[in-house]
Amino acid sequence: MFIPVIGLEVHAELLTDSKIFCGCSAEFGGDHNTRCCPSCAGFPGTLPMLNKRAVEYAIRAGFTMNCDINKLTYWDRKNYFYPDLPTAYQVSQLYLPLCVNGKVDINVDGEGSKQIRIHQIHLEEDAGKLVHDDFNNVSLADYNRGGIPLIEIVTEPDFSNADEVKEFVEKISLLLQYAGVCECRMEQGQLRVDVNISLMRQGDEKLGTRAEIKNLNSIKSITRAIEYEIKRQTEILQNGEKVVQETRRFNENRGTTSSLRSKVDAHDYRYFPDPDIPAVTITQAELDSIREQLPELPDTRLERYIDEYKLTPVNAKILIADRAISDFFDEAVKSYNKPKSISDFIIVELLRRINLGELDANAIPFSAQEFARLVQAADEQKIAKNNAKTTLRYMIETGDSLDKIAEENGFWIKEDREKLVSTIDKILAENENVVAEYLAGEVKVFGYLMGQCTKALRGVCTPQSIKKELEDKLGKLK
Ligand SMILES: [Zn+2]
Fold first, then answer.
1. Helical (H) or strand (E) element with 165
2. Which of 471, 180, 145 has the alpha carbon at shortest distance from 323?
3. With bands split at pLDDT 50, 70 and 90, how would you rate the model's confidence at 166?
4. Cα(86) to centroid(ligand 1), Å
5. Which of 156, 335, 390, 440 has CA atoms 20 to 30 A from the CA of 269?
6. Fold for the domain defined by 417-477
7. How far, in Å, from the CA of 438 to the mean position of ligand 1?
8. Of 151-165, 193-207, 374-388, where does the model show the most confidence?
């Protein structure tokens, strides 16, 4: 029997406007080699200049994961050659990382809560990217990504299975998004995960030999890679063989991992302090001010939705899973204080359309106040429920206002009292027999009469006023 021991190294690209050591744009994409300069392209003689914002963002990230912040921190060169790294070293932090000793609580279904320790969070620069052109059989280097600030979040080996890792990656993505330091779009490489994994024989104290799986960029790949690797290492150990310490890559199509290179240790990189970049000192006042500016974090928000707004934990979790949606919900509740109605309409109608790709959660074409008015109109039956859904669809498609759409399509229920009275009179006259049954005590036929009236008065009056008028009239006939 073997127990998996798993630790993570998570790389997250920080959302700064410019790169970490020069003024080039840090935005994703762009034509090849249009977002680089002599400094980030590694020309000799250039000098780096630190982007203060990158340090601030890394501290924010550290606070969300309950880290201690080192008030003195400096930079180290990690030496290795690769064509996407023009200086042949990466500026990183080894000896005195910015954030240390953190912890993040995760909740796994069926397992309860577990604390994952964060060993450190350090800052470093991203490398460029190789573009492989199979047609011409060449590889070209694109340095647009080179020098984008990254944080590397290093955990202790506290995970025992893929579910825990999945929960953790989702949790820290949420924390980084709420802190406003990384959008965590894994498909764009903004969050990349390396998994260190070994198996320990039950009862043993010594950790087994680990393999590292590099650069996993979706939750699905992380889960599949871990499950495959546990299986692979189990078979090796059961055959009495030894696991080799190495770096492996995950093959998406085959669902397997394969050897990339033998794993090197830190000393192989010949780290040494970077002589070009001054050490950074951070004052307590600066730390306090960064902490004060932190927004409400997802766990606190979740609690508030459940305790104050009485939402179900499932619905509260759906809302906080995207900060833009959660902010939109909070804004809407401010103008119409019925959290459950707002939440239902967001989850059932708005999120469905977002998931269908009809709109982007970050670019909703109407205000939360307008949305709240629509939900309120539906609640008060000033607009029929189905028409409220249609109105939302038109608001998304046309960008027109609620009033314009409801007016043009005749969705507002006008409460035409004259028509209400005459229609009910007419229906009662046409259904003499049913009315007689009702008066003789067959109260259940009321439903039939009510059905006839609502059908005839759809869009003219609200169901409440129809019901009241019908009851009054039948009362008078008694
Ligand atoms: Zn540059």
1. helix 162-178
2. 180
3. very high
4. 12
5. 156
6. Arc Repressor Mutant, subunit A (1.10.10)
7. 84
8. 151-165
Cα-based distances in Å from 189 to 103, 106, 141 = 24, 24, 17
Side chain identity at 355, as an amino acid letter? N
293 C-alpha to ligand 1 centroid (Å): 29
Residue 114 CB contacts under 8 Å (≥ 6 apart), including other chains? 105, 106, 107, 108, 158, 164
Q: How far is the CA of 191 from the centre of ligand 1 (A)?
A: 22
How far apart are the C-alpha atoms of 58 and 40, rounded to whole Å?
20
Q: What is the pLDDT of residue 202?
A: 86
Tens-digit pLDDT profile for residues 338-370: 999 999 999 999 999 999 999 999 899 999 999
Which residue is it, tokens 């359309």?
353
Distance 51 CA to ligand 1 centre (A): 12
pLDDT over 80 (residue 266)? no
How far, in Å, from the CA of 141 to the mean position of ligand 1? 15
Q: From ligand 1's centre to the CA of 94, what distance in Å?
A: 23
Write the CA distances from 197 to 134, 209, 254, 264, integer angstroms.
33, 8, 20, 15
The Cβ of residue 326 has, within 10 Å, a number of other Cβ atoms equal to: 23
Q: How far is the CA of 87 from the centre of ligand 1 (A)?
A: 13
Cα(54) to centroid(ligand 1), Å: 15
Residue 455, classed as helix, strand or coil, is helix
Percent of the chain with pLDDT over 90: 74
Q: How far is the CA of 120 from the centre of ligand 1 (A)?
A: 27
Tens of pLDDT along 289-307? 999 999 999 999 999 999 9
Tokens of 412: 């507002």
> How much distance in Å is there from the Cα of 20 to the middle of ligand 1?
9
pLDDT over 90 at 110, yes or no: no
User: Is residue 87 helix, strand or coil?
Assistant: coil
147-162 tens-digit pLDDT: 999 999 999 999 999 9
Using the mean position of ligand 1's atoms as its centre, give its distance from the Cα of residue 387 in Å: 54
Kindly give the distance from the C-alpha atom of residue 148 to the centroid of ligand 1, in angstroms, as a whole number: 9
CATH 1.10.10.410 boundaries in the chain: 417-477
Neighbouring CB atoms inside 10 A of 377's CB total 21
Q: Is the pLDDT of residue 118 over 80?
A: yes
Between the CA of 448 and the centroid of ligand 1 the distance, in Å, is 75
Instruction: Report how far ligand 1's centroid is from the alpha carbon of 93 (Å).
Output: 20
